[in-house]
Design brief:
- The chain has helices spanning 5-17, 27-40, 46-67, 77-84, 86-96, 100-118, 127-146.
- The protein is mainly α.
- 29% of the residues are buried.
């Protein structure tokens, strides 16, 4: 079990308690769970690995804005798919029974928010601070969605 398991538990309870649109069918929740899975996967390098991968993919300004304290710069579905890989996005689409455009579109909204909330001090925290930052940041993220 990784340290983000507790964060995932909080996210699940927050999502379950929020008024998610029925049309979404829980897709955003499933994608959120997949993103948290990426962040807790030691092979991917966790949060710092994901941030580095996005920056190395030519989106350094965007990911820096998500980590920083200012406004988050947007990312297009095409940019995201290029950075994460078409096979990754296609795999999620198949897993959840939706098209790749919907997966990429949802991830363009989720990733900036998640990275922003996990980096409240404007820097990628070390593993010892990640759980605390994640719990506080993601709880506030979903509290705002249900308001």
């Amino acid at each position: 079990m990784g340290i983000l398991d507790a964060v995932l538990g909080v996210i699940k309870s927050q999502v379950a308690g929020s008024a998610a649109p029925a049309a979404a069918g829980g897709t955003d929740h499933n994608l959120l769970e997949s993103v948290i899975g990426m962040l807790s996967d030691p092979q991917s390098g966790g949060l710092s690995g994901l941030v580095e991968k996005i920056a190395a993919g030519g989106l350094a300004d965007q990911v820096a804005s998500w980590v920083g304290k200012g406004e988050n710069l947007p990312i297009s579905a095409e940019q995201l798919q290029a950075v994460l890989g078409s096979s990754f996005v296609q795999g999620l689409a198949e897993k959840f029974g939706i098209n790749t455009a919907d997966v990429a579109g949802s991830l363009t909204s989720l990733l900036p928010q998640i990275i922003d909330k996990l980096t409240p001090d404007g820097e990628v925290p070390g593993d010892n601070k990640l759980l605390e930052a994640g719990l506080a940041g993601l709880t506030s993220l979903f509290a705002n969605k249900s308001a």
